[in-house]
Design a protein that fits this description.
The chain is mostly helical. It has three helices and two strands; from the N terminus they run H-E-H-E-H. Helix 2 links the parallel strand 1 and strand 2.
């Protein structure tokens, strides 16, 4: 029974996936894109120890070239 359900799932996935292509697109030439400094990824390490979490998050932020924010500086988490 499980194999039948799995086979049906795979078949439905293959049938449902069709190739889609963009034929026309529009772009506003007068629009300006600016990078908002508050629009950065939030780095969250899910570990039990608070010290380890801060060390891991700091290391990940450093590896992301400071384009991210460590969760302990952004969120007020009470354990």
């Amino acid at each position: 029974m499980k194999q039948l359900i799995f086979t049906m799932f795979i078949a439905a996935t293959l049938i449902g996936c069709s190739s889609t292509k963009i034929e026309k697109s529009w772009q506003d030439t007068s629009a300006k894109l600016k990078r908002d400094p508050a629009n950065k990824p939030l780095v969250i390490a899910l570990v039990k120890d608070e010290t380890s979490r801060r060390v891991i998050e700091d290391e990940l932020v450093k590896r992301m070239n400071a384009n991210a924010v460590a969760s302990y500086t952004f969120l007020n988490v009470e354990t």
